[in-house]
């Protein structure tokens, strides 16, 4: 830095003005903070030093490069907002470290605060208000968006990360959201895959986006899981979507598929008259609460004999889906409770919706994925312990699937 540039900041004058400002009640930080001029000087001096070192390095390497005028940008910090000036290089190869070219917020704490509030589901308006109260700083919606976009590389890396070669249980389900597109609003399905490792710990294995839920798209999802290293899932728990078991069998042919009994019950009750729902359920319970698969099927026949003529559609559905509905009968009661329903992933979805329910429609697919990803990170921090009675569960799984488990130990 030359003498003229050094003389551009009079520290004694700044100190006198700062002391005077303090006595006058001016804040140290914030929009008109006392420290803003000092921070501006430090940053500009550091940038000049970095550029000088960069030009010297390129000269030593035989690269012709030199200064090429000045550039300025509006910078926000907890010490105040100011116009930052810095020199440019003709080659455009200078990448400053102290304050990267496109960065306009210079406190990591503030950016983390914004990302944290966004992950709690706050709107940009609420975040702006919160930051204003906390830091006396105005932040526009576009600036907030650029800050939250910083999670995108981490999100993409997380979505493509390598998986374990085998998972004990895998739950597959989806949520639906509204996303703005052009002048209208469309529905998006967010497909979530929740896994339970051989250590008994939950992990969200994948998060995928599509316009609608369907077995064809699930096939693509399962293929991606395999490409990321998953070689086997012992038991897959799914809703009653037609073609779902076939999609799983195409990619993971050894997997036991359990169709969600709760989904099946809900779908059945849609066809039952209100006055018959209670007695129908009393007769349906012995079907899925039986001790064995054979006993359950006998009770299904009894249900058919009593209700089949009046309500053929739900009874036919139970017969048609029986093979996958009855998978859980092969296991002890404590494993049955874990796999007979997709409640595990639905419980996860309920936690996500607590945060996302305030959103009428997301501005883009990216905005939707960013928020769900951040919510996932918050929820998964609590997934540190194995499922209840996991040693007992693993012992039974080892008896049932010994050869498949040994391949991955």
From TrEMBL:
Single GO MF annotation: transposase activity
Keyword DNA-binding on entry: yes
One GO BP: DNA transposition
Keywords annotated in UniProt: DNA recombination, DNA-binding, Transposable element, Transposition
Pfam families found in the cross-reference section: Transposase_mut
Keyword S-adenosyl-L-methionine: no
Function: Required for the transposition of the insertion element.
Family, similarity comment: Belongs to the transposase mutator family.
NCBIfam families with a match to the protein in the record: transpos_IS256
Record protein name field: Mutator family transposase
